[in-house]
Amino acid sequence: MTDIATPGLRLAHRLSQLTFGATLLLILAGGLVTNTGAALAVPDWPTTFGYNMFLYPWAQMVGGVFFEHSHRLLGSVVGMLTLALAASLWPAGGRWRVLGLVATAAVITQGVLGGLRVVLLQPTLAILHGCLAQAFLALVVVIMLLTAPRPASASARDVDPTLRTLAFLAVALVYLQLVFGAFLTHAGWIELHLVTALAVYVLVPVVAARVARWGGGRAVSGLLHAMLGVQLALGIASFLVRFTSIGMPGGTTTSLAMPVAHRVVGSIILAATIALAVRTATANRGRAGAVGRPIVSQAAS
User: Fold this and answer.
1) What are 127-139's pLDDT values in tens digits?
2) Helix or strand or coil: residue 125?
């Protein structure tokens, strides 16, 4: 967390919020592309049916082309926001500059992976594309949290090192669950996804409850518990839609909405878990410097 009067990081924080929101929308759009079977509706890349991607006629964006081309355009928006975010972090130097460069490299790699998936027709690239999407979201969340304004006088009780370790373990476990979700989506591997889901529902609620009792993230802990409940319902519905013949109310619309919503809520759970981990990691550092002295000045010096 930074001092509230750090102008450069205040801009970075706003940009990270925009990038986070746009990335969530991009993950939603990616889910629609996958679950509508529109992944190869546009056969070329980086062009779209020979057009410059940004000049493709809107009138021709119908059916699967609409989902796939919209996904590309939204990806470009996320890319431009990431470049702006990296530029806003650059003057702060130190770790901030590194975070901006890593985010830029990640978003470029993600775009190339998506394009190569179209050109090379390799399902493995689709899995990597999905995994990197969640990793990029996690990085943006970390930047958003670290640049969030917080008065230097803010304090909290010391964190039990065990709780800090469990919080980071929860982040790793939730991310692994999302990785296995990508394998389920693109390769049909469900066993690992179910096993890690069980582990998530054992560990994450305990971590959230302990962080709430510690007093460092009651609101996020409450959100996390609620999202876990929603995610369980969506997971069961998605399983029924894909692996059984049981009909769901709403027909095709429900069959499309359940797995897409399941993916997006998974991303929100990842973000909330990261928020708890970052809170436990930074809780005791805000008191290390002089009151009113921004942490960024120490990191950049």
Assistant:
1) 999 999 999 999 9
2) helix
